[in-house]
Amino acid sequence: MNTEYIGIIVTYGLTILLAIPLGKYIAKVFSGEKTWTDFLNPFERLIFKLSGINATKEMNWKEQLKAMLTINSLWLLYAFFALIFQDKLPLNPDHNPGQTPDLAFNTAISFLVNCNVQDYSGEAGVTYFTQLFVLMFLHFMSAATGIAAMMIIYKGLKQRSVTTLGNFWNFFVKSITRFLLPGAILVAIILAFNGTPTSFAGKDTVITMQRDTAQISRGPVAAMVAIKHLGTNGGGWFGTNSANPLECPNYLTYMVEMIAQLVIPIALIFSLGFYLKKMRFAYIIIGVMTIGMLMLLIPTIQAETHGNTAIAAMGINSANTAMEGKEVRFGIPATAYWSTQTTVTSTGSACGAHDSYMPMTTGMELMAMMVNCFYGGCGVGFMNYYIFIIIAVFISGLMVGRTPEFMGHKVEAREMKIASIAALLHPFLILSFTALSCFVLVNFPDIKWVFQPKNWLGNPGYHGFSEMLYQYTSCAANNGSAMGGLTANNIFWNVTQGIVLLFSRFIPIIGPVAIAGIMAQKKFIPESPGTLRTDTGTFGVMTLAVIIIIAALAFFPALAMGPFAEYFSMK
Amino acid sequence: MKKYLFPSLRLTLVLLVLLCVIYPLFIMLVGKVAPGSGDGVKVYRNGKVIGYENIAQAFKSDKYFQPRPSAVGYNAAGSGASNAGPTNPDYLKKVNAAIDTFMVHNPGINKSDIPAEIVTASGSGLDPDLSPEGAKIQVKRIARLRNIPENNVIKLVDEHTEKPLLGLFGPAKVNVLKLNVALDELK
Q1: Across residues A237-264, what is the average pLDDT?
Q2: A254: which of A145, A159, A445, B172 lies 20 to 30 Å off by Cα?
Q3: Does the residue B65 lie in any domain?
Q4: ipTM entry
Q5: Residue to test with chain A: of B21, B41, B45, B79, most A Cβ within 10 A
Q6: pTM (2 decimals)?
Q7: Structural domain that includes position B24
Q8: Which pLDDT score, from 0 to 100, does residue B126 have?
Q9: What number of other Cβ atoms are within 10 A of residue A270's Cβ?
Q10: Does B173 contact chain A (CB < 8 Å)?
Q11: What is the rounded average pLDDT of the residues B131-156?
């Protein structure tokens, strides 16, 4: 077997091998058991003391959400103004200008919600100050927010008939001090020793071998790239993300960045098993997610290695024809693997140009983001899956004529309503906004905007439609990858994306937390032979079916018009 | 909400110091002992900087190995891909033209030996590498223009081919800049 396939198989294997002990460790951290990092206790107490926070006070789910939304609103305001006035702030060696209000609106929200869709290019659109103090800061914040919200749900699944579900600040700060920051330090050091810049020096100018003058953008890249992956954020330092050779210099850093962006989402599912002491339940979830991921990965690798038939027809070497937008140091299978993993998680980083991938790859990437819970983002991946579990419990309960219950609590009308709204919001946002953008493009191509709709798309035909569908799907999934041909830095896209981003982040967090909070208060029903078991293969298949039906029915027409139509148009 | 405002504000400030001052400064200090001292790894010739190891540069002369096409003219002040879709007719015309140009500059090669990487733009526009095939297809041209035996150039490419990681993972590659530096030293 060739080294390119061994590379990705070993990368995935290492991810799982790391995720199991990490999951066990995370479960211990949050259940307050002894861990080897307990020497950080005084340090965390200092953080809480300086912030005037009582981290031992139990909170109910409404108080938790209020705390979360307050601190998130604060970050949004801070990020928005810092980006607008970045030209007047320090650490701007390249003299980049401030962002326009619509771009700052989009960027601030995009990083706040763990999406990181970037309508600017990192080299010219932000400064070292905003890269670190706004964007990288939000990398940590958004990941920790997602994990804290998920912990509230874990707590709700474990507790019986209680009103309080732990302390938001405690979950939030500990996810930073106990694994996000230590992990980021480790990854950043590995990157630094492989050639990723770490210093604050500005652009360099060199005279090349053939006496041309060339400029090279630099900066403290390694620190940001580390947490960009660990926190499933994806917003990179440079415009071309990890395709840029300074952001991901070689195959070792490829493996490290790849493992970093997948390990926490998987570890969090294992941690659920350890935390509830129901490993079977966790294995079933991991199993369903992995089957889902493979169903997307295999067609992607097949499409990319098969290549572009139109280029093969020109008479050149027919191997590896899909090299447009890819980098030699990664090769085709590894780039395909990255594209799948970065869209099943909410990372959305890229080691190649998504716009130049094969149509089937685009289709699989879109489906990964439409489903948005095969591993998913830090914390929120499980929360999306949790919604599908609730729906699956309800449907299977009705099918076999039993009262639907989950983890000893009845699932009733109120929870189902919340779950349905959360599940339907995703297709609603994606499809209605894609329809809106098509409407504007077709009917007002010459409207008097600075950037006219007729110039939006980088490619004609089905592919152009895919670009628009992809943009909103990526926003709604809080993914952040983009098909670069779409010129999105203009008022229409900046504003509509911002709206989609806000809704699709906070409603899918509030919904599941509310369900968990409401269910935890209910009377506990001990398991009996009549209980529908949720830790069996049958129930796993049931959940997968619910996911496929909801995603396929809602999105299939749109997929057929974009990537699948393009696929069938290729000879 | 008010109850949470001041704790939020103070926690934000504390975390800004920890994550945005202490953390990147620590990584910067560690980077000082890394290759390139954290400024990016440079390539020197006769004591002068001639470029960055990981950043492709333009080689207009046919006497040198040429890197993959760049959608941004090898300008590393930014970075960028063509973002051309695989069925875009304009794009396919461009690739076809690139193949014809390559054939003109490299007489005597078989069209069916041309690897696609040499006529398609990279993801960053700064791809510093070629696959061994991408380098070897240029050997005939370079040997002829420099009046050196083809075998010497092939040997040079082989010497500069970096094997997959640990011989097991990922593709083999050749760094174009380092290869060209060595090429000038070849008698």
Answers
A1: 94
A2: A145
A3: yes
A4: 0.94
A5: B79
A6: 0.94
A7: 1-39
A8: 94
A9: 24
A10: yes
A11: 94
